[in-house]
User: What shape does this take?
Amino acid sequence: MWHDIDEKIISVKGFCLSSKYKGGKIFGQKLNLKTIGFIEITSDSGTRGFGENYASIYIPELLPSLVDFLEKYLVGKKVGNKNLMNEIYQIPFIGKSGILRSVSGSIEIALWDLRGKLLDKPINQLLSKKRDKLPCYSSGGSVIMSSKEIEEDVNQSLNEGFDAYKMRIGYQSWKKDLERIESAKKNLNNKILMLDAIMGTLRPAWSLEDALKKIKDLSKFKPRWIEEPLNPENISELNILKKNSEVPIAAGEAYSGKLEYDLIIKNKSVDVLQFDCTHSGGIDFCMQLSKDCLKNKIECAVHVWGSPVAIAANTHMSYCLESIIYVEIPKVKLEISDFMWVEPPKIKKGQIELSDAPGLGVEITEDIKNKFPFVKGTGFKI
Assistant: This one.
């Protein structure tokens, strides 16, 4: 069992790498580079585990110093210690939520990767895999795409083995957005469509009144959900929107830690709760969120918008949870991704299948670090 591992942690480091995109239209990153924050934990045998931190897309320069601060809580302790992260999570005022919880949860992902590699087992086996099939969807449809580009994006997704597709709205005129949605719906035929208003990103965000009017227009397309239709800070009106919406409401990717999620689950403010172990607070925390949602009859879907580490971590976790209805697979491709997978996942008939490679099934070698050095000024910014 993983908790019997006696090896000790000798270092915990945070670093960022910058990768070019492989074609497609990119919103918010004019240099055509995406910077991703990674965690690297090394045990006394020299084995390394990796995690990813989603918040570092926005504040890459902060990650190394935050991890340096947290390293002292972990060095010298056993990899198999069940309570290894507790001291960090219990730091008064800042340990349970916010950026520190986001980063410490990413450290926990690296810890799971390390455990899997030391035991020569994939993470889902350490977490008690519960299912063999896992639905996923192609997440594309940039807000700056035209109707014709949306059509091409949908058809490419279908050819890649997906039977569900998500697109972004809320940036262009509402008339153009409705035309873009019509194009997606037409080309999907009977396949599933999700819509993302990205009101955690766009400003000004829709008001409650705006959201209600727009959702009424969207109802004819029968989307699986409308995502982030309000500013994530506007939790109080999310519950009102959900009660009056003709389309299922999805939200949750913007939060990190216990307090916000507890409020949303308790008030049943969404139909679909979305979380991401690279930001929300780690694998253990997200697994508990899933169980809480199951008790409250709330569906769950995982957010993924990063490298193979993020895809692998959220997918391994989801294999162990019965309440996950979808895993998000980013449509935009990164050059770095071609080098990180031990064996790439397979997408068949709308399902994602991971290999049985140890840990996450990813590696970040020194050659990869040298090939994709961090470029300052590449944090996401509109």
About this structure: The radius of gyration is 20 Å.
